[in-house]
Structures are given as C-alpha cells and as structure tokens.
User: What shape does this take?
Amino acid sequence: MEYFTLSNGVEMPAVGIGTFLMQPEQAEQAVYTALQMGYKMIDTANAYMNERAVGRAMRKSGIAREDIFLSTKIWASEYEKENAVEKTLKILGVDYIDLLYIHQPSGNYMAGYRLLEKAYKAGKIKAIGISNFHDHKLEHLLSECEIKPHVIQLEEHPYFSDTKTLNMLAPYGVRLMAWYPLGHGDKGLLNEPVFTELAAKYGKTTAQIILRWHTQNGTSVIPGSTSADHIRENADIFDFTLTEEEMASIKALNTNTRFYNPPADMEEKYAFFAIDLDSQP
Ligand SMILES: NC(=O)c1ccc[n+]([C@@H]2O[C@H](COP(=O)([O-])OP(=O)(O)OC[C@H]3O[C@@H](n4cnc5c(N)ncnc54)[C@H](OP(=O)(O)O)[C@@H]3O)[C@@H](O)[C@H]2O)c1
Assistant: This one.
C-alpha cells in the first residue's frame, strides 16, 4: 500500500474502499472482505446510513484500530448539532476518526466546520475534510476557518477534474480524495481503448489502469465495490507504473463530463434532508 502525507503529517492510504449506496449488510461484508485483503482505508458517511455496519466490520476483522484509516462525513442537517461528532463516533463504535468531512456546502456549513476544528483540537479526529465545496462557499470557508482543511473529496475521473477548485486549494496543500474514481462503474469509461491497450500491456484490468492513474497523480481513491474480485483488484495496483506519455494520454480523455448532475438548487436543499442515524441496524 502506498501512502500520502497530509499537510499536518498524517499518513493517508492511497486506496480505500467506498461504501456509497451500500445497504448495511452489504457494507459490512464489503468492508470486512477489504480488510481481510489488506485494505487500510474505509470511506463512509452519516448519509450512507451504514456507519454502524462499517464499525461492526472493523471490529470483526480483528485488525487493530490504529491500522485502519477511517474516513466519514457529517451530513448537512447535523451541522448545527453540538454533539454531531460524538454521535458519529458512537454509531461507528470508535473513539477517534482519522478523517472527518463536512459532506456538503449546504446550510450552516461554517457551524459544521467549527465542530470539526473543535474535534480536531480534542484529538477526536486526526484530519479535517471538506467535500463538494467550490467557488464562493469555498472562498468563504477558507477565509473564516482557523485550521485549513487537509483533504477535499470531489468527483474526479478521467472524464472530469474540478481544476478550478483544486487550484484554489493548492496553496494550502489540500490532498484530493476522488469520488466516482471509476466513473461510478460507467462501462463507456471502463472500456475506453486507451485503458484496454494499457491493461493488455501491463497485464492489468482497465479499472486498475484508471486507479493507478489517479494515485500516480497524487490522488487518493475509494472505489466502491461489493464484489470480492473487484475489491481485490482495486488494491492491486502498485506493481506497475504508467509512463509520463501514458499519463498524458489518459489526461487527454477529459471532456469535463460529470456523472453526477443534480439540479442546481439541490446543494441548498441537502441541509433539509434530515437523517435518523439511530435507525440503522
Ligand atoms: N463525497 C461525496 O459526495 C461522494 C459522492 C459519491 C461517492 N462518494 C464516495 O466515493 C466512493 C466511490 O464512488 P462510487 O462507489 O459511487 O463509484 P466508483 O467507485 O467510481 O464505482 C463503483 C462502481 O464500479 C464498479 N466497480 C468497482 N470496482 C470495479 C472493477 N474493478 N471493475 C469493474 N467495475 C468495478 C462497482 O460495481 P461492483 O460492486 O460490481 O464492483 C460499482 O458499480 C463511494 O463509495 C463513496 O465512499 C462520495
């Protein structure tokens, strides 16, 4: 496993397993499988409603807590709740979180960010993340915050990169963790001839070529999968290196095309989507 060093010195694995859209029992099985296969990082979120299951898988794995990098996200409807971080710790069944994000630039996101700063100072979280921030809300957060974020999660894959946001964050050494690193499993992306050719050259799958491209760019990835074969192959990407020319040929696929295209007013609405964390099994 390769690691990236965050601006505060914390070591973050280059690859983890994502759990978006997984039912609790699926997430528990996928995370357990990944940990047995040597994964060191898990990404979940309040909104995925599977954090309790993720915590169960971590304990069932028998792997020491300090050998797992746990990343999760506070949902926007929780930002003004004083105990939102403690609640998340309790649901997961852990006493610290390696990387805690505020999930959306929605509602009172500064209140959410203050919760993260407070938890960071108290040692309850080891790194601070922001997710899906851009433009004026990102500017506002950067100007108001006391501790600069360490990581941002954004949609990122060979068809799309949010370079404007990444350029705004570059001066602070904020690391990118890509969501939809495989374009949410889009077959058109996975079957691009560039990837098929490189897969044949290196004896890898097209998904492995894409994930290697991300990590060689310095981007951390959290591909989601419930398939044991995919989980295994997604972490097996460190025994080959793409050439500069190959990296450039993948970059050239960028068409500025997102796979996630919510309506324009969705961002503000997120804060009104309440969740009941206690209701998850
Ligand atoms: N911050 C945010 O707002 C946000 C938004 C979305 C996602 N995320 C995070 O990012 C993670 C990744 O996103 P994602 O899971 O939606 O999309 P993704 O990782 O780009 O793609 C997942 C899809 O690809 C398939 N897949 C995985 N490995 C594969 C392989 N080796 N070969 C072929 N197909 C493969 C999976 O199906 P199988 O199950 O069959 O393998 C699944 O359908 C999420 O799980 C979540 O943790 C964050």
The beta strands are 3-5, 11-13, 17-18, 41-43, 69-74, 99-102, 128-131, 151-155, 175-179, 220-221.
